[in-house]
Write a structure and sequence with these properties.
This protein is mainly alpha-helical and 94 residues long. It has one domain. 49% of the residues lie in helices and 0% in strands. Helix 2 packs across helix 3 and helix 5 crosses helix 6.
Length: 94
C-alpha cells in the first residue's frame, strides 16, 4: 500500500508569511516546495517578496476584498500586514 505524504497544513500563521520572504525560503521553512508556496500566494493575490521594501508588498485585489468582510485584526491574522497598516489602508479607500 502506498504511503500517504503528510504536508504542513496552510494555517493562518503560514499564510501570513506569504510574500514576506522568497517562496523558496518560505517553502524550506514550512516543509513545502517553493512552487506550492508561490501557487498559494498567487491564488490569494499576494505579491511576491521584493527586496525594495523589507517585507513590503503592494495591496492585491484579494487583500483589498478582505477589507469588506473582516476586521483589521482578522485581516492581520490572515496576512503579513500589521493592524495599523490595515487601518491606514481602510481609511485611504473610504
Amino acid at each position: 500500500m502506498p504511503r500517504k505524504r503528510t504536508q504542513t497544513p496552510w494555517t493562518a500563521e503560514i499564510i501570513s508569511l506569504l510574500g514576506t520572504m522568497p517562496d523558496t525560503k518560505l517553502g524550506e521553512r514550512i516543509g513545502r516546495s517553493a512552487q506550492a508556496a508561490g501557487a498559494l500566494r498567487r491564488r490569494l493575490g499576494i505579491e511576491a517578496f521584493s527586496n525594495t521594501g523589507p517585507g513590503r508588498h503592494p495591496w492585491g485585489e484579494t487583500e483589498l476584498g478582505l477589507l469588506r468582510s473582516y476586521t483589521d485584526k482578522e485581516i492581520a491574522a490572515m496576512t503579513s500586514r500589521k493592524v495599523e497598516e490595515i487601518a491606514v489602508k481602510r481609511r485611504e479607500i473610504s
